[in-house]
Every structure is written in C-alpha cells, then in structure tokens.
Here is the input.
Amino acid sequence: MSTATTDKRAKLVTQQDRRRQEVRLGWMLAGPAFVVMLLVTAYPIAQAVYDSLFSLRLTAPDERDFVGLQNYLTVFSSTDVFWRAMLVTILITVLAVAVQLVIGFALALLMHRAIVQLRGSLRTAILVPYGIITVVSAFAWYYMFDINSGFVNRWFSWVPGISEEMDWFAETWSALAVIIASEIWKNTPFIALLLLAGLAQVSDDLLEAAKVDGANWWQQLTRVVIPNMKAAIMVAVLFRTLDSFRIFDNVFIMTNGDAGTEVLSLLAYRQSIMRLEIGLGSAVSVIMFVCVVLIAVVAVKGFKVNLAEGTGSNAGQKKETK
Amino acid sequence: MTEPRRIPTKLALRGAGAASAAMLLLTGCGADEGTPVLTWYINPDDGGQRVIAEQCTEEADGEYEIRTSLLPADAPSQREQLARRLAAGDSSLDIMSLDPVFVPEFAEPDFLAPVPDDVAERTTEDTLEGSLQSATWDDEIVSVPFWANTQLLWYRESVAEEAGLDMDGEVTWDDIMQAAESTDTYLGVHGVRGESISVWINALVESQGESILEDPQAPAEDVETTLDSEAGQQAAEVFSTIGEEGLGGPGISSMDEEQAMRLFQGDNGSFMVNWPFIWAATNAGVEEGTLDQEVLDDIAWTQYPQMEEGTASAPPLGGINLGVGADSEHPELAYDAVECIVSPERQTEYFLTNGNPPSSEAAFDDPSIAEEFPMADDIRESIDNGAPRPQTPFYNEISETLQDQFSPLSGVDPETTPGTADEHIGEVLRGERLL
Here is the structure.
C-alpha cells in the first residue's frame, strides 16, 4: 500500500518536474521573440501615447506644448469627422465580416465535401484572392469600377440603377459598396480556410449519430456542425473584425476618403503624415488602438474565444484524452 | 561527372575577375574622394533635371558632383517626404526641387539654408513677377525660382465657332459655361478632390482682385480666410453651376489635369483650363497615332478666363523653386550648383525638352522657343499676371479644407460653402477640429 503511494507520488513529482522544465523550455524558446516584440511594439505604442499629450507639429519643432488631454477632446468633439469615420469603419467591418462569414462557410463546406480529386485544386483556386497583395487588389477593383477605364458600367448597364455614366466613387453608398465588396472578395478565403479547419474538428461519429436519429441536413448543420465548431467560427470572426477595423489600403486607393468614405486609420494618417500634426495624429492612433484592444478583450473574455482551440489543436487534445 | 567540377573553376575565375574589378573600382573611388557629392531631390519630369545635373557636374570640373534622387509623383507626397527628412536633420538634402506653395512652411522653421545675397541677386534679376513672389517669405528670398508654370484657356476652335464666341476678345467663365451648354459639350476643369481644387478657387478669387488669405504672415491661431465674401461666393457659383448642370461631364469628380486633357481631346471636348504640358502631350499623341491631326489643328489657346468682363484674370501659378537644406554639409557648393541649374540657357533648354516654362524673362527670348511653343508669349504674359496661392506655412491645412468643402462640385452651395470653409479653416488651425 505505502509503496504504491510513494510510487504514485514519485510519478507525480517527475510529472511536475517535467512540466516545470517544459515551461522553462517554452520561455527560453519564446523569450527572445517576446523581448523583440516588446521593443518593436511596446516602445512605439508608449511613444504614441506620450506624443498624443502634446501639441506638436513636425514643421514647427520649437513650438511643442504640453496640452494634456486636449488632443483627445478635439478628436471627440469633431463629430462630423471623427464620429463619422468611426461609423463608416464600423459599418464596413460589420457588413464585410458578416458577408465573409456566410460565403466563407459555404466555401468551407464545399471544400470539405469536395470529391477527393478536386479538393487540392479547389483549395488553391479559392485561396488565390487571399494571396494577392491588398494594394494590388484595391487597384484592380478601382479600375474595374472607374468611370473612365472600368468595364463594370459597360457590362452591367442593363441592370437597373447602373448606367454607363455612373461614377461609383462619387457617392458614399456606391463607393462604400465597392470598398466592402473588395474586402469580401479579398478576405473570404481566409475565413473559409479557418472554417475548414473547424469542420475537420466535427467528429463523424456525432454526425452519424444524428443521422441515425433522423436529423435532416439543416438540423445536422445547426445542431451538430455549428455548435461543435463554435471556437473556429469565433476565431475567424475575431481575426477578421480586427483586420477590417484597421482597413486602410482599399479606401486609400479607391477614394482617399472622398465622398464620405473616410475611415479611422485614414484619419490618423491624414493628421500624422499629411498634416504632420504628430500630437493630434497620435491621439487618433491611440484611440484606434484602444478600440482594437476592446474588440479583442470582448471577444476573448465575453465570448470565451480560445485562440489555441480555434486553430484546430483541440482535435489533437481530444485524441490524447481518448 | 566532369560538369559539376568544371563549375567551381569557372566560378573561381569569375571571382578573381570580380576581385580585380573591385580593386580597380576602389582605386578609382580613391581618386574621386575629394569631390563632394551634392544630392538633388527632384520631382519626376521627362529626364531634364538629370541632364542638367550631368551638365552642371561637368561644368563644375571636379568642384562638386550632383546626383539626383527622385521624389514621389505628386506635390503633397513630395512635401511629406521632404518635411520628414528636413525635420530629422537629414544632411543629404543638398538641393531640393520644391513646389512653391510649401516654401513658407519650410522657410519658417529655418529648414532652408539662407540664400546668400549675391546668389539671390544674380538668380532673380529678371524673374517673372509671379514666380518671384513664390520664392519669397517674410520679405526675403528663401528659394531660387527654377521654372514657372501657369494655366491657359485651351479651346476647340470648332466649338467656339459653333457657340459664336469671339475668342480674340475677352472671355469669361460665364461665356464658356454657356458655350458648353449650348453646344452640348463638356468643360475640361479639375473636379477631383485634390490640390487642383485649391488652385482653381484661388485663381477665381484672385481674378476678382481679392485674396483668400488676408494676412499670410499670421500665426496659426490668427489665420483668417475671406471666402465668405462677394468674391468667394462668385467663385463658388462657378463651381456649383458646373457641378449642378453637369458641364464637366459625368466623370467630373475624378477629373484631374490628365483626365481633363483626355476629355478635351475627345469628341465632347470644348474648353479647358490647364497647364501647358497638354500641348507637348497632344503633339506626342498625334505622333504616336493615338490622336488625329485634326484634333491638334482644332486646338487653340488664350488667356485664363475672366470672372468679370474687363477685369484681367489672375491665372494659377505653379512651377518649381530650388531650396538648399539647412543641414546640408556643403551649402556654398549647393548654391553654386543652384546658380548653374537655373541659368537662363538651361531654363530655355528645359522648356524645349521637358515642356516646363522658364521663370526667367530672358529665357523666353530664345528664338527656338517660339518655334516649338507657339503659345510661349501667352505663357509669359500669364505668368506675369498670375497670382500665387496663399503664401503661408499653413498652406496644406488651408488647401485640404478647401478641397474638402469645394468637392464634389455639385455639393457646393454658393450661399453656405464659403462661410463653412472659413469657419473650418479657422477651427483646424486653432487645433479645435480634425481635418
């Protein structure tokens, strides 16, 4: 009896030792990268926060004044600029992510179910837009809809509301529609890929059990498949939301913020880079940073997104526990 | 089996060759060590500035060597890059090709090395009035005019005839707007949100003898614009009429100088305000066969349209001035080089080869200019009558707000837009509002 307990205890101690060693090894492996990350991200963030408390213009370096939170007040009180940009950013984010999720899910199902011979080429084909540089895809979409060189007006002039003389980038709604469409086209493959990983996690046993119980296709999808890949869906939504919220390239190239399409990152760019108002620009950047952190915190804490699970590693864990 | 073995020998031979070449290069460098290198940041052109750099290097006979470095394509991006480098104390900014509107912004914080009196005197002896104004800040010459630019009114003779417009007399904005409407053609104007909006509105206000900015020297918090005036409202009226009645065609909100030229060359072209580059570009189009000779034959030009009949217009002014960076290691040499670059002969040559008009009066006298540019006299007159855009360190903010308020053209309300623009410019410069 006692030998058995000591054996057990010894086993436990070695297990704990091992775990401790693994943790140490983990730190040694990831530590340098962690330090570099701190240097290249924490330092600029701290600098931006510090700069945002000053009235500082690059071309008037001698007139640097400490103004406290004045820059933030200016930003928040510019209703027709800041809050409008915030609204446009949220609108683009919500619409783009929602549509991407639906189309991405459909594509993931298609890839999952595709005949084995087709699977490889299908995945490659679906991934092509994601492999294109955002600036290039933005230019492609811009030239497609451009009133002078675009073919969309000519091809689709039979559609009510579209004429050969339609300038897509002159009105807010049409410009936003093109911007959102280009976002969707470019990033749906990313969601599809993440969701495909999620689909692979859904155990076939569960599906078979559901079939035996007489569940139809829709019931299988909503009762079995989706609940079992919730983690993957949440990770995909979180990643895309964070990315979409920081949208810059598409808007910069297609409208440069004209026709009421200004977004937050463009606003920060306009203040810091174009106006050279470092203080005001830093304030906008800091606000954007806080928004991004909030989105991440709400997703991770509020919706309990487990980043490690979403990437498909829990499939491995399940096997281990078995 | 023998193949792979052969490659290393070849490589070794090549390596030895490269090493001896490197030795030669090194010794070559050694001989040149004493020659200071001046970097000239140039705006994109047809290669003319590079040629001038080579010529002046040769002329300097070992005293200095000018190397060019290319800036971004548009003026605001050029300003962004130069401002960042100047603020960081970059010593490689020996000579800079500056858009005149940004000269005060760089001169105010002493980013530019002072122009020696003798250089200022020699290089501005016969500079055209408009161009000279743009080189000055706080009553001092702070940059050296290199070339000047201005807009003319270009028109299709056939359209003017059809509309019954006498183009030899005085032509007003109302005339050309009516002519475009009656002939069902489009005006070539610049409706895209960009610097060209500010260029345009400034010219319209200045053509009525008024200025957008009352006191250009005022500090940021005291800057006041005067758009909410009779002159400002008249200018807004032109914008609004063209926008509301679609006189600029369906693509007006993306129409820049290039697009306006293409519209003008097309079937619906009628009148266009634009820089002289369009002459060289249209000629090139005919030579390449993309345009008919008939189009070129149909094109004529006159002075920028007037706002009120009988009051001479104040056409837009542009061009490039040369500045020397305050942190340059060789400011004296840089100014020697600047003198070489802006000599009247080089300005003439630059006009002939690159189509950019001189800022020096004497440079226009060369007989070859009249041959190549039949409108050279009109250009000279236009530069002399031209009014620069507001000369203030805060030009960028003023211009951005104007662009924001006066585009799209159809959204301009002559009653309210000028007042809102004044208000916003004040708030932006006092730091009470984002741009």
Observations:
- Chain A touches chain B through 33 residues (CB under 8 Å).
